[in-house]
């Protein structure tokens, strides 16, 4: 019990440091984080909690739970960006502790697995990165794991009604987080229960009947929003939320198309740094299908992994809800190693790699000054690399007395590595990801009743929340339409994006800001109309 309390304190401390540093060193990340904040901001302005809007148009791509939670944070603390950025980290923290609870149910006699699982999950680079990003996937991961927890408790409690209700809440919460895809994370393992459970005399008819009822309960929870929202949003919105969100992404796969093996190819990267942990490999060789907990994790992870692999549209964060299953398997493998002396230097290889990474980060500015790779690399302070090198050396020479010590050392180093790499990155390039200067300039022009247009195919709302804009920006995708708009709004301004090399634009715009790999400028309509050569510079 003392070990569990100690591990919990370390998890909370590392999570707190990671979250605090993220809030401090980086802005809302465009275009995803800024877009979701913009949707919540427009709902807040409209005082409309049913239908999301983006730039004055109905936004049907995502369900509303994240937007509701953002507005709840503003209701409690006032409108700001830090409170909405705590939502994903809080779901991550809840998922970390819930993963330990799931481990305790799967292997009640192996307390060490319960201790190791959340530390391993937090130590995954992939998990730690997405823990601080304001997106829907961490919420989905929590509700998926809550559903998994409910299934296990149903078995333990002889199909108790309260756990059927909890499963319904998990499904409903998942639907409101990211749509019906929550069923893909819960249904396969539930349907495969006869394989992983193998309990004589189990009431399978009650199991499958209860599963149907829980799905219907989750649907009712989601429909409590979807029906009134569909009525308020109109026919096109109804079709989008009832048919378009999941069918478009999972069946038609209209974007992000990649080959079927892509997830398999990147899986080793998602499991770093634990693949550098030597005892893990020895423990994996000892695992067998006779272990019902292993069967459960495989029934949970493999069908979902295959399903996502067969869908052509792929994004790395789609696999985030599967990471708790991976952490459970890794923790169970580590528990197979019982010899205490095998843990003393088990973390040495990982610390050597962390130290090498820190040394590269520390030497990078000097090497860049000598070889002139990219100018911004010289802006990175060697302090970031020095911090990682010192941490790796100190943790590397410290002997681990147990598996928990070894896991904890790697988890600490992993969090420090992520902080230092992100710190160096944003020290060099934070201005290219901070939309606030441009957004505040746009807000000032709107306050003067100037019309604002965005020249491009799509505006993602990256300036709306940062500038607290209260008016829509006109999106003009074509150059001829842009000139027509400029003639009708001669006192207006146009947001244009261009490369550094386009010196003509640089010489004519009064306000320009770096944005990712390009620049963003506010171009006066009068200047556009008075300089015919700008047409060639603006035409793609």
UniProtKB/TrEMBL annotation:
Membrane disposition: Multi-pass membrane protein
Glycosyltransferase RgtA/B/C/D-like domain location: 61-216
One GO CC term, this protein: plasma membrane
Keywords, alphabetical: Cell membrane, Glycosyltransferase, Membrane, Transferase, Transmembrane, Transmembrane helix
Entry annotated with the keyword Transferase: yes
Main location: membrane
Coiled coil: none
InterPro entries the record matches: LipidA_mod_glycosyltrf_83, RgtA/B/C-like
Superkingdom in the source lineage: Bacteria
The name this protein goes by in its record: Glycosyl transferase family 39
Origin species: Methylobacter tundripaludum (strain ATCC BAA-1195 / DSM 17260 / SV96)
């Amino acid at each position: 019990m003392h070990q569990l309390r100690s591990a919990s304190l370390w998890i909370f401390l590392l999570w707190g440091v990671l979250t605090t540093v993220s809030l401090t060193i980086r802005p809302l990340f465009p275009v995803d984080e800024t877009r979701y904040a913009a949707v919540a901001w427009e709902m807040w302005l409209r005082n409309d909690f049913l239908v999301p809007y983006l730039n004055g148009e109905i936004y049907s791509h995502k369900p509303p739970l994240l937007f509701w939670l953002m507005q709840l944070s503003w209701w409690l603390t006032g409108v700001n960006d830090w409170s909405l950025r705590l939502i994903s980290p809080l779901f991550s923290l809840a998922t970390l502790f819930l993963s330990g609870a799931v481990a305790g149910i799967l292997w009640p006699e192996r307390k060490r697995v319960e201790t190791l699982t959340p530390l391993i999950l937090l130590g995954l680079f992939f998990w730690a990165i997405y823990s601080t990003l304001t997106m829907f996937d961490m919420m989905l991961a929590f509700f998926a794991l809550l559903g998994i927890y409910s299934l296990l408790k149903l078995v333990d409690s002889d199909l108790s009604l309260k756990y059927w209700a909890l499963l319904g809440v998990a499904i409903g919460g998942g639907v409101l987080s990211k749509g019906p895809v929550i069923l893909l994370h819960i249904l396969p393992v539930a349907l495969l229960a006869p394989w992983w459970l193998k309990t004589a005399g189990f009431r399978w008819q009650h199991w499958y009947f209860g599963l149907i009822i829980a799905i219907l309960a989750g649907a009712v929870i989601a429909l409590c929003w979807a029906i009134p929202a569909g009525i308020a949003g109109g026919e096109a919105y109804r079709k989008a939320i009832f048919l378009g969100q999941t069918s478009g992404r999972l069946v038609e796969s209209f974007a992000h198309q990649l080959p079927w093996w892509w997830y398999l190819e990147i899986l080793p990267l998602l499991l770093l740094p634990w693949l550098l942990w030597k005892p893990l490999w020895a423990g994996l060789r000892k695992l067998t299908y006779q272990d019902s907990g292993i069967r459960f994790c495989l029934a949970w992870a493999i069908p979902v992994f295959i399903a996502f692999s067969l869908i052509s549209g792929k994004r790395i964060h789609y696999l985030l809800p599967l990471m708790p299953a991976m952490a459970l398997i890794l923790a169970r493998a580590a528990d197979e190693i019982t010899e205490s002396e095998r843990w003393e230097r088990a973390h040495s290889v990982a610390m050597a790699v962390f130290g090498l990474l820190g040394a590269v980060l520390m030497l990078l500015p000097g090497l860049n000054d000598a070889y002139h790779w990219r100018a911004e690399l010289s802006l990175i302070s060697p302090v970031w690399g020095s911090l990682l090198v010192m941490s790796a050396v100190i943790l590397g020479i410290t002997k681990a007395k147990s598996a928990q010590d070894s896991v904890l050392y790697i988890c600490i180093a992993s969090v420090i590595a992520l902080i230092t790499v992100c710190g160096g990155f944003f020290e060099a390039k934070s201005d290219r990801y901070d939309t606030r200067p441009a957004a505040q300039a746009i807000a000032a022009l709107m306050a003067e009743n100037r019309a604002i247009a965005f020249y491009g195919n799509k505006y993602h709302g990256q300036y709306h929340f940062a500038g607290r804009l209260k008016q829509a920006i006109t999106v003009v995708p074509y150059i001829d339409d842009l000139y027509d708009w400029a003639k009708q709004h001669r006192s207006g301004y146009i947001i244009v994006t261009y490369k550094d090399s386009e010196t003509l634009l640089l010489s004519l715009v009064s306000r320009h800001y770096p944005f990712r790999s390009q620049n963003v400028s506010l171009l006066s309509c009068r200047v556009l109309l008075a300089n015919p050569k700008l047409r060639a510079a603006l035409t793609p």
